[in-house]
Known about the structure:
The protein is of the alpha/beta class and 562 residues long. It is built from 23 helices and 20 strands. The strands form four sheets. Strands 3-2-4-5-7-6 form a six-stranded parallel beta sheet. The radius of gyration is 24 Å and the shape is globular.
Amino acid sequence: MKSLTGGQAVVESLRAQNTTHVFGLIGSAAMEIFDALYDARDLQFIGVHDERTGAHMADGYARAAGKPGVILAGQNGPGATNLVTGLAQAKAAFSPLVSIAGALSSEHVYRDAFQEVDQQSLFTPITKKTWTVTRTDRIAETFRDAFRMASAYPCGPVHINLPRDVLSGSAEFADDQRAASPRSTGVPGAGRSDIDAAVEILGSASQPVIVAGGGIKASRRWQETIELAEFLRAPVVTSPGHGDAIPFDARLNAGQMGPRGNPVATELVKNADVILALGTRLGFNATFYSYVNLNPAAKIIQIELDQQAIGRYFPVAVGIWADAPTVAAQLVQALKNTSKRRQPDKWCSQFSDARRAWLVERDDKANMEASPIQPAALYRVLRETLPKDVVYTMDAGTLCLQATDALNYWRVPALITPLDFGLVGFSFACALGVKLALAERPVVSLMGDGGFGMTLSELSTAVDYGINTITVVMNNQCWGAEKAYQRDFFNERYIGADISSPPFDKIAELYGARGYRAERISEVRAAIRDALNSATPAVIDVAVDPDALFSFRRDSFSHRGG
């Protein structure tokens, strides 16, 4: 046993969970933690400029590293409330975050004290669980529970409030906290009867489709899905935001499906007679909860570790509560032992022809000479110029939604987006966390000018800590998605849609980063090549056609007759 202050106990608890990076903003409520971090040379503290963007960094780190990211808000009250957007984002994305905030001294609670807010109630709805530690000797126990819960499927953020008196107190702790850390466990497979039922349906399918979702991507186990697809001769579509679930060059990869996906993948699920959903909820971004985007006559086989997701939005013929890659491997073995299996060669051949034609069309429709720059031309340059190991982070908004399936993802993970939270102002900060997790890979952040304007103060963080990401600001001088809706459904009655920004290339240079301005597509290509060879963060301010807008959520305004 050894005596530790509360602050020291926090740091020892982080060590016990093999934490290497802590993102945070200093504040007086958690000063004991920061003082303990001063001596923790094995933990890299990344000081951020806003708790919200710090949470996005931890989110990006977690998704790229495959382990919990840590965000520390040093100040109770306003420092803690700034975490809310970042934690809500992480919950929607099933991202494992451990969020920590200093809290009011226990004796001052409910006295309208300085910077008092009910942090327990504040964070409970937007986390898997929120704790307020009441005794110093329970810090280690709480952190063990928090990391365990953040990492348990479905993953998600957790939050720990640490009152000042708890941090300043002392207690006896076991010398080795690692001994009490959770052990890894195996992943569950499917039972024999479930496999037999699925094989019976798949064996008779003439137009099968596999939908690969976040469960495939997060596991990094895509080989089983490809092997199953080849055996079934079934095209693989990916759910939105998970276009990197399998590598781009997989022969049967159709790309992302749904209202925001590419037309080939979308048509596949509209015409399939059997849909094998591997690690996907078939949720909002994939389907808009509508049979407009799925064949209502298709038999659905859904494999998910999240039991609540099975059959939640669409009735299933077979629902299997298990690990999707494990079940994919089980299905391959079972199918090899059955003689009842159709060979959907025509279906597969038609898909291959359509996919090739779409990829050619994607290049051909990119007007490389147009001024101002067209989004399709920008995406083509990115495809042609960036190396195959690039990781993209994206914001929400019309230009990023257009980019989602206009890019190629070769190496998992390669695409990190806000997913169902649809957050603007996410991508740049997220990219900084991704780069710290995957230092050897180039990381490119795509943002609109509005979103980058929200978060550009983190350029200081990027420069101070040498985090050399490349940020491509698609500058169309408007809030593009909303302006598209005003154009298409509100008779061009624009209000609040147009914005102005300073020259982001010059702003980047003032912060100590590399700055580039591109008004022609050739300038974009040159800037990317130069930025790839730079040891400092880079910002490329790209003048994009302000009229290149698209209304993605037409269903939301169908009542207006648009």
